[in-house]
Amino acid sequence: MGQATQELLIPFLGALQASVAVLLTIFAGVLASQFQLIGADSSKEISKVAVRLFLPALLIVNVGSQLHADTGIRYVPIIFWSIFYQLASLGIGVGATKLFHLPQWVTPAFAFNNTTSLPLLLVQSLDASGILSSLDSSPDVVDRAKSYFLVNAMISNSFTFALGPKFLDTPEDTEASDDQQTPQDPLNSPSDSAALESQRDSAAAANEQTSLLPHRTARTATHSQYALIARLQTLYSSLPTPLRRLLSSLAPFLNPPFIGTCLGALIGLVPSLHTLFFADQQHGGYLNAWLTAALKNVGDLFAALQVIVVGIKLSSSLLKWKKGEASGAMPWGPWAAVTLVRFVLWPALSIPLVYACATRTGWLDEDPMLWFAMMLMPVGPPALSITAMADVSGAGEEVKLGIAKFLTVSYAVSPLICFSVVGALKASQAAAA
């Protein structure tokens, strides 16, 4: 009995420490905001560059290094699993919102959990506490775990881009998970040639003042860009209406993380490119020591910065809460429902389901880290997208303050994930045995 207790207590304490480490990183963002080391506007800019530059670089390195022509099949179940649990969470959110007459913003809170910064930081903390090595002692275990979570994050963020704003009737530029913004579809911009020429001239003049390139080079690049847009618009206008609608609906999925994933997959699956980017220099990896290293340095900035931005956002929300005279009551009902689904229901479903697939079918690769990651993918606090959705949808101040309280308490109880970590760890070990 004592040994069994110890076998559970050690990973539980390790998972708890990892969860608290994530919480303390969030608290660092709160302190930075409270001591006015960074403002809300700066945090938005940091989040934007993290999503549009740091995250694609991280995806290129992690997905590309772990994806090989002979191991690419192991990522296919992640794609299907991500789509399944996202749609299931969305269905739960829609049903609960209508059945119990919950606020509209609760639907995306049910549907979209934090799939990028928190899981990546949790992986690093779990590695520091020795939990990952107890499951897999391979030297690349951390990078492999990150690549699994990043592929899931790409699917999750694509759903957030495309579906999240629609549930609050918000415009397409609503901020998505972890402050990611829906990219504009250039093919839907005004096709009038005079308007396009005016935009081109304005952009050329602006680029001459802001670009580090010579004036002639900057102007030529801008003219070439708008010439390509004009040709694409002409081609787009000539397509049948159903096809144009299909392309328009798919446009939100074309975002920087998705492009980074595609580039990483291309580099990983093409043997010559994989060797060029990731092999030792004496074995043909001529880009590894400088280009790949630079991409890795840039990508490694993503996880910690994004979690700190979470803390800055929560600090701003708490400050508004403090200043609000009629801040409204804490939405304990929606919070309890979302917390129950994310920290209790989904672990209770995902752990035995993935365990059954790993032990009774041949659908999953023989990789305990893959099983462990898939068990934890649906678990975690809701994404911060609902704050931006509420802003754009014109929600009242009292509703926004209620959402701020909701998110603050949700992230405060995020160490609850340690129970799911222990369950996933023991299930993965049992499946491997």
Please characterize this protein's 3D structure.
It is a single chain. The chain is an all-alpha fold. It has two domains: 2-183 and 254-432, Na+/H+ antiporter like fold (Up-down Bundle); 187-249. It is built from 19 helices and two strands. A two-stranded antiparallel ribbon has the order 1-2. Strand 1 and strand 2 (180-181) form a beta hairpin. Helix 2 (40-66) packs antiparallel against helix 14 (302-323). It holds the Pfam family Mem_trans. It is a multi-pass membrane protein.
Shape: globular
| Second-tier CATH architecture of the largest domain | Up-down Bundle
Residue share in β-strands: under 5%
Radius of gyration: 23 Å
Helical residue percent? over 70%
Largest sheet: 2 strands, antiparallel
Distance between the termini: 21 Å
Query: Helical region count?
Result: 19
Mean pLDDT over the residues = 81
Quick one: CATH class of the largest domain? Answer: Mainly Alpha
Uncertain runs with pLDDT below 50, 5 residues or more? 170-191
Main structural class: mainly alpha
The number of distinct structural domains comes to 2
What's the arrangement of strands in the largest beta sheet?
1-2
Report the count of strand segments: 2
- Fold-level CATH name of the largest domain: Na+/H+ antiporter like fold
Order of helices and strands: HHHHHHHEEHHHHHHHHHHHH
InterPro entries: Mem_transp_PIN-like
Pfam family, one: Mem_trans
Biased composition (Polar residues): 179-192
Protein name: Auxin efflux carrier
